[in-house]
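I am still getting used to backbone structure tokens and would like to learn alongside you. Label the sequence line and the structure token line clearly, so we can match residues to local backbone shapes. Would you write everything just below, so we can both look at the same thing?
***
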Amino acid sequence: LSGLDPAQPYFQGTPIEVRLDKSDADFVDIIHTDSAPTIPNLGFGISPAIGHIDFYPNGGEEMPGCAKNPVSQIVDIDGIWEGTRDFVACNHLRSYKYYSDSIIYPDGFLGYPCVSYDLFQSGSCFPCPEEGCPNMGHYADKYKDKIKNGFLKLYLNTGEARDFPLWRYKVTVTLSGRRKVKGYVNVALYGSGGNTRQFQITKGTLKPDNTYTAYIDAEINVGEITKVKFLWNNNWINPTFPKLGAATITVEAGQNR
């Protein structure tokens, strides 16, 4: 039984006979997309974990793409009716959009077991544990036999618009060069599944022999990595023409470690 942002008003804090609960089916998975307090945030969705596994995409409260200006949202690519509904209850309605996208992407929407969204964002809950991560949405029940006692809270990020799934990678770059310089470092991944856009790994003072790490959420599953593109730039014209390179670049996929 999949709960798509189960309702908060009149249900949160009530006995389990009244609201959705993991005792209602052999396997209950929940997608929380609008779990901010109803007052004053107008959150429509329940916030506590109530299923066997509970997914909190983007932290579960504010979904990317829902803060667009009202006109652009109402004149939506899916039509004015869909756009108007999104304007009124965008976060709440993201749950079924993620679910429908998950049918098309059996390897997408990996939820990382974590205590909080902040810890997930910092990389503390990366990569997936040895038993793997469950997939939010249609294929969540593949994880059914791996459930242990208690509640399992899972975190992930999504895109702003369809297609919503993102794949998480840890990218570690060790710089080479003669002297430090101010600027930024970008990396793009190339693989058997396709290529990513450039992601900024670090900016500020770049020091040779220092190692910089970033967690990136790519729009595609790169698959087996064949090449990494490294680019750096300083923020202004430097007459000394400093040079920097990448001594090593390490990429770890969250999915298969």
Notes: The mean pLDDT is 90. The CA atoms of residues 113 and 154 lie 5 Å apart.
